[in-house]
Amino acid sequence: MTVALEYLAAALVLLAAFFLLVGAVGLVRFPDVYMRLHAPTKASTLGVGGVLLASIVVSLAHGRPSLAELLITLFVFVTAPVSASLMAQAALHMRLPSGAPVPRDAVPERRPHTPGSTGQASGKS
């Protein structure tokens, strides 16, 4: 392994550690659940991505394929935003308070289900 690849891997790990630290600080310092979801989701995706890129650099320098790292990166980049979105939707559904104004149409009104109704509007005016 060359010195340049070692420096590149070390720089990627340091960059990833910085993003993870920023995400952890954001998780502790932000005031409400929506902001607390945003900081670690974005930062951890970039942090894990940096660590996996460093692992790819090291594995390629040693001459072995890095298919596992590529699959893990793909999995993290797909699942982290989806899980954060689902948690934010659950928080909206539970009507957790937010520090920012929430538009009225962000959470649809729940109407009680009445027997015999299909939920579709009738064509009569």
From TrEMBL:
The membrane spanning regions, by residue number, are 6-31, 43-61, 67-88
Q: Which GO terms describe its molecular function?
A: sodium:proton antiporter activity
What are the entry keywords?
Membrane, Transmembrane, Transmembrane helix
- Show the InterPro entries listed in the entry: PhaG_MnhG_YufB (IPR005133)
Which residues fall in a compositionally biased region of kind Polar residues? Answer: 115-125
Domain of life from the UniProt record: Bacteria
Q: Where is the stretch described as Disordered?
A: 101-125
Pfam families to which the protein is assigned, alphabetical: PhaG_MnhG_YufB (PF03334)
Asked whether the UniProt record includes Signal among its keywords, one would answer no
Signal peptide stretch: none
Q: Which PANTHER family does UniProt cross-reference here?
A: ANTIPORTER SUBUNIT MNHG2-RELATED
Q: Which NCBIfam families match?
A: CPA3_mnhG_phaG (TIGR01300), PRK12674.1-5 (NF009316)
Q: Any idea what this protein is called?
A: Na(+)/H(+) antiporter subunit G
> Which lineage?
Bacteria, Pseudomonadati, Pseudomonadota, Betaproteobacteria, Burkholderiales
